[in-house]
Task: inverse folding
């Protein structure tokens, strides 16, 4: 265990707390069992280490451990916990839990057997975390860490700090918000860079390798996690990649599930199931007409990639501008709000608000006569009335 303690100290020493994700203030850290889920590369490990450094410093009450450490080749998690508690430990932070066999059951046992111990855990496999929800649902408070918002990107990459703005704030006082933001910087100067490379914090580690690393992340999900954890036939992985490329090129993608299934060579039901799996991994965002009680076999009405950075990795030649705009809106708004398909426009949000997405010349014709309807326009700094700048929806978190 002394080796793990030394690693813990080294990790804290090199942890930078200049920029900390906003989720850290929304987590109830008093809970005895906390899970932090999120797609690969969004900064879950960094968030934990920053919290430890800022709140516990060099206290021996706390320990950060990654469960993919070679130490666990010859030791069990229960060995670590028993030794840590006997040394007076109170706060245990477990990273990469999906790399440890039967992790969910062991965490459940530790929670029940050591009531004096608080545990925070993360894993880079969303499918593994979802698999464990049933075992831990009555005990763990699960939080979702998305990729960087446009607001967080500006702070992390350019040192410009902005407050978060609520959804009602943006709808009702977007002109005032434009004044506040433009007093600090010109959003359109940075917005395209964010769309291309700003969602994943690991971009700063090696910008030149970012596309390669992101592609590797996608391949790991498709080639390893889906076959292993969702029993997707490996023979179809290449065709699923082709499907993702088609979605990235569309304007946006409105699926004909029967034709797609025939093209890939699987049943309609199997393809619909595969689409649900891709949603679970956050590689896709799907819109349905009714978000309540979505069945496993219900087909989505419209599909987007999970974020705009994926569009540039999967489709290096020609990213469709309209799809890009809608993907950004869907990605930023889905965190904290319910997105649905709308027959009248691009999006219905929270079952009430209608949004049509487009460029600065986009008219209101399509949503004329609809209550609570807005045009969201790219390439503008200021909106007016029911027209709101697209970039502003990147200030929600």
Result:
């Amino acid at each position: 265990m002394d080796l793990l303690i030394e690693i813990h100290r080294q990790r804290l020493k090199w942890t930078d707390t200049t920029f900390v994700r906003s989720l850290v203030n929304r987590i109830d850290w008093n809970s005895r069992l906390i899970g932090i889920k999120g797609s690969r590369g969004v900064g879950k490990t960094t968030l934990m280490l920053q919290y430890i450094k800022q709140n516990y410093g060099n206290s021996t009450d706390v320990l950060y451990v990654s469960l993919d450490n070679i130490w666990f080749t010859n030791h069990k998690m229960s060995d670590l916990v028993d030794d840590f508690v006997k040394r007076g430990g109170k706060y245990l932070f477990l990273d990469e839990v999906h790399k440890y066999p039967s992790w969910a059951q062991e965490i459940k046992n530790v929670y029940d057997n050591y009531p004096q111990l608080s545990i925070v855990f993360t894993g880079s496999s969303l499918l593994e975390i979802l698999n464990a929800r049933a075992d831990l649902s009555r005990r763990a408070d699960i939080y979702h860490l998305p990729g960087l918002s446009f607001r967080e990107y500006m702070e992390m990459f350019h040192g410009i700090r902005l407050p978060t703005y609520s959804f009602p704030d943006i709808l009702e006082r977007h002109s005032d918000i434009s004044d506040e933001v433009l007093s600090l910087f010109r959003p359109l100067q940075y917005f395209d860079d964010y769309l291309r490379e700003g969602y994943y914090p690991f971009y700063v580690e090696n910008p030149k390798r970012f596309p390669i690393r992101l592609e590797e992340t996608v391949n790991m999900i498709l080639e390893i996690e889906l076959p292993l954890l969702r029993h997707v036939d490996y023979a179809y992985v290449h065709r699923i990649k082709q499907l993702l490329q088609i979605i990235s090129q569309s304007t946006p993608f409105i699926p004909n599930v029967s034709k797609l299934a025939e093209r890939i060579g699987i049943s309609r039901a199997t393809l619909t199931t595969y689409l649900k799996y891709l949603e679970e991994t956050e590689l896709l965002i799907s819109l349905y007409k009714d978000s309540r009680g979505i069945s496993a076999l219900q087909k989505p009405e419209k599909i987007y990639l999970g974020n705009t950075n994926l569009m540039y990795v999967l489709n290096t030649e020609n990213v469709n501008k309209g799809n890009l705009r809608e993907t950004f809106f869907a990605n930023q708004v889905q965190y904290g709000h319910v997105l649905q398909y709308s027959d009248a426009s691009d999006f219905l949000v929270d079952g009430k608000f209608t949004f049509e997405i487009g460029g600065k010349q986009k008219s209101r014709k399509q949503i004329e006569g609809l209550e609570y309807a807005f045009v969201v326009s790219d390439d503008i700094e200021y909106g007016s009335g029911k027209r709101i700048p697209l970039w502003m929806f990147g200030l929600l978190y």
About this structure: The two ends are 38 Å apart (CA to CA). The chain has two domains: 2-144, 153-395. Residues 210-229 form the longest helix (20 residues).
